[in-house]
Amino acid sequence: MKSWGFEVGMGELRGSRMDEKIKMFIEKLKNPLYEVVFNTYYQGEKLWIALKINGEIVGGLKEKWKDDPEVKGAVEDALRIRDEKIKEKKLRNSWQVQVLSEHYTSPLYDRSLPRDLYFKLKKANHIYYVTENDLEEMDEFFDEPGWKITEEGKKILREEAEKTATPEMLEMVKKIRAEREENARKEKEKEKLREEMRRILKELDEIEATATLAPRQNFPSGEMVDDPRHSWQEYDAFGGGHVYVIDEKKQYIYFILNNGRDGDDWSRNNIMTGGAGAIGWVVPYNEEIEKKLRRLKEIYSELHLFE
Prior knowledge:
Elements: E1 13-14, E2 17-18, H1 20-29, E3 35-42, E4 45-53, E5 56-62, H2 69-93, H3 95-100, H4 106-112, H5 115-123, E6 127-130, H6 132-137, E7 146-149, H7 151-164, H8 167-208, E8 212-213, E9 217-218, E10 222-226, H9 232-235, E11 242-247, E12 252-258, E13 271-272, E14 278-284, H10 287-303
Parallel strand pairs: 9-13
Antiparallel strand pairs: 1-2, 3-4, 4-5, 6-7, 8-14, 10-11, 11-12, 12-14
Helix pairs in contact: 1-2, 8-10
C-alpha cells in the first residue's frame, strides 16, 4: 500500500488544515488514470471513497470523513476537476476534433473513425498502411510507419467532420490551434535564447584560447557556471565536464576542463578536484566576461537547463 493509501483514512484535521496524507489522496482523485469507487470495503473496513488501479485498491478515505465539511468539499472539487479532464480528453480524441485540428495520426484510423466512413475511405484507396520497408523504399527516413491518407481523403474527412462537429468540438479545435500557436511562439523564443547561448559560448571559447595555464592549485573557490556542451554537473562523476569559475575575490576567471577519465593524461592536471584532477586555464578578472557568464546562467534558467 502506498504512503498516500489507507493511512489517510486515519488522518486527522489539524485546526482548519487537513493532514498531508488526505491532501495527497484528494490530489490523486483529480487524475483520470485512477478508477474512483464509492462505498467499498478494504480488509473488512468500509470506505467512503477509494481509488483503484488495475482493479486493486490503492488508497481510500474512511466513512468518518464523509461528514466532515472541509474534506467533503475538497473531494467534490477534486471530482469536478477530474470530470472536466475526462470530458476534455474525450473531446480531444473525437475524430472530428482530430480532423479539424489536422491531427492525422494512426490512432485516428485504428480506433476513432466511424466504421462506415473508414471503409468508404479505404475502399476508395484514400487511406493505406505504410510499413517500415515501404518507407525505406520511398527514402522517407523521417516518417513513421502506420496509416496514411491522401489529400482527397483529408478533404472528405474535413467535410464530414464539419457536418457532424458539435459546438463544444469546434471550441476545442480553437483551443488546440491556440495552444499550437502559443507553443510555436514559445519555441521561437527558446530558439532565440539558444542562439544567444551559442554566441556567448563561442565568444568564451575565443577568450579561453588566449588564457594561460593556471598554476597547480586546489579547485578555485567562486561561482561556477556550467558549459551545456560538456556539462561539469553531468559528467564530473565520470571524470569529464567543462566549467567556468568566477574567482570569489574577482581577481581571475578560470576555464576548467575535467581530465579524470580512464585514458586521459592525468600528468597534465593542474587543478585538484578530489578525483584525478582537471586542467585549468586562467585570465584576469574582466567585468565583461562576468556579464557573459551571468547572462549564460539566466539563459539556462529560462531554458530549464540543469534542473
